[in-house]
Amino acid sequence: MGDQEVKLLGVWASVFSKRAEIALKMKGINYEFVVQDLSNKSPELLQHNPIHKKVPVLLHKGKPICESLIILEYIDETWKSGPSILPEDPYARSTARFWAKFIDDKCHPAIWKITGSQGEEREKLIEEATGHLTTLENELKGKRFFGGDEIGLVDIAGNFVALWLGVLLELVGIQLLTKEKFPKLSEWVDDYLNSSIVKETLPAREELLAFFRSWFQQSKGSQGEEECEKAIEEAAEQLIILENELKGKKFFSGDEIGLVDIAANWKPHIDKVPYPFIYQ
Description:
4 strands, transferase, EC 2.5.1.18, four-stranded mixed beta sheet, alpha+beta
């Protein structure tokens, strides 16, 4: 496959962009990293990810692949050179996907909420995050990496836990992932961050600290009624995209129910008037 035709739209401080970079380097794929400014999104980003308008976006032979976990699987399935990112066994693959999603769905939100909380609310969120880290600690016991002896999908998804978690919590004066509380997870962090490909790809801790310190200062007080209205507008925009995608088809994939239709089983809650094709 023409690895010279690979481009990655990303941001240097993005945990999700770095996932894709690590996977490409593990496979030995040459790629062009196209830096994005998320405060002024480029026409290229908006063209190739019009739905979410976010990084990373992998471009392979002009075709876009979005969402970091999906990109990791695409890289593994497309380039067989280098180490496997997902295991061959179907059960082991599904288990890896489960834990990668656990990190995204549980660990990420819990830590981000801590940074914007105070008092009792913060204490509850710290307890919640501690529970998630304990779950990961138990999953690691007896293994060097989440998949065994080599770095795989869950480890790459765990970039956030390995580096970003400590940076974000340091900015609010909290130390959570310690060797005393989480000896196995701390050992995994050291092994992962000192892996040659990971070490050359992830940003320096001090650079991340400076970036997020500035970002926190700029974003203070940005939430409120205006942000709520923006969220409503965004939701309506996404429904219009689905409405347009359905025109001329009974189901998203054609005449028969498929993956997208099953995923969209929330449609009875949509207003029938502005979205007739979705409602049908």
